[in-house]
């Protein structure tokens, strides 16, 4: 009898669990856009004028690496990086937190900062949206004709998603995420200060790099 009672209790518990799981599943929010694989388009960073001016003051000359471009648009200076992969889920704001999830890859492109005979290359950016969103990348240092890898995956920038405008998806499947504010991370500031022998760079919402515009397609 005791065995039968325990068995019935276990079956009842499993039934309740299954019912609960079904209810949760039926109430789960669905993304308004989902890309299992990102296949193209670009991330554009509209550089903050104060940041560009600060580079001049520090005698750091910016440049591009690989397929990246720096261009002038409407009086702004833009850095453009082709999207080479990743994935994304975009939910209606308020349905889930974070409402943008996934990663955005930019292999083969990046930026350089040069001073004297030293050049720092930051490249192969990966954007990690969502809570505590950030951008990581590889850091190479060239000095005296020799290039060394300083970091394979360093957090370069902090991303403030509070300034992100409502994402849109066009009729031809292009997702646009515009307005995220980009700040130099504490880790990157420390690394750059060490290489260029200065203490002028600070991280964490003290050095605004610019504003991001992501346009991505996928399947």
SSE arrangement:
Elements: H1 2-27, E1 33-35, E2 38-47, H2 49-57, E3 61-66, E4 69-73, E5 76-82, E6 85-90, E7 100-115, E8 118-128, E9 134-143, E10 146-160, E11 168-169, E12 175-184, H3 186-196, E13 208-218
Antiparallel strand pairs: 1-6, 2-5, 2-13, 3-7, 4-5, 6-7, 7-8, 8-9, 9-10, 10-12, 11-12, 12-13
List its salient traits.
219 residues, alpha+beta, 2 domains, 13-stranded antiparallel β-sheet, 21% helix, elongated, disordered N terminus
Brief summary:
With 219 residues, this protein is an alpha+beta fold. It is 21% helix and 51% strand.
Structure description:
The protein has 3 helices and 13 strands. The chain is of the alpha+beta class and 219 residues long. It has 2 domains: 28 residues; 186 residues. Strands 1, 2, 3, 4, 5, 6, 7, 8, 9, 10, 11, 12 and 13 form a 13-stranded antiparallel beta sheet that branches. Strand 11 and strand 12 form a beta hairpin. It is elongated.
Mean pLDDT: 88
Distance between the termini: 57 Å
Instruction: List the helices and strands in order.
Output: HEEHEEEEEEEEEEHE
Say what oligomer this is. Answer: single chain
């Amino acid at each position: 009898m005791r065995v039968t009672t325990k068995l019935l209790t276990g079956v009842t518990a499993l039934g309740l669990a299954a019912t609960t799981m079904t209810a949760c599943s039926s109430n789960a929010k669905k993304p308004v856009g989902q890309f299992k694989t990102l296949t193209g388009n670009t991330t554009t960073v509209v550089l903050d004028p104060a940041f560009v001016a600060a580079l001049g003051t520090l005698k750091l000359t910016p440049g591009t690496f690989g397929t990246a471009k720096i261009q002038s648009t409407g009086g702004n200076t833009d850095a453009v990086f082709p999207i080479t992969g990743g994935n994304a889920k975009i939910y209606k704001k308020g349905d889930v937190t974070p409402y943008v999830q996934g990663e955005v890859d930019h292999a083969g492109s990046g930026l350089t900062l040069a001073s004297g005979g030293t050049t720092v290359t930051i490249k192969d950016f990966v954007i990690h949206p969502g809570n505590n969103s950030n951008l990581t990348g590889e850091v190479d240092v060239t000095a005296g004709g020799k290039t060394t890898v300083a970091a394979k995956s360093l957090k370069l920038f902090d991303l403030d998603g509070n300034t992100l405008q409502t994402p849109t998806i066009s009729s031809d499947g292009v997702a646009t995420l515009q307005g995220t504010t980009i700040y130099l991370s504490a880790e990157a500031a420390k690394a750059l200060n060490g290489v260029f022998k200065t203490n002028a760079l600070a991280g964490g919402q003290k050095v605004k790099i610019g504003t991001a515009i992501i346009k991505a397609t996928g399947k």
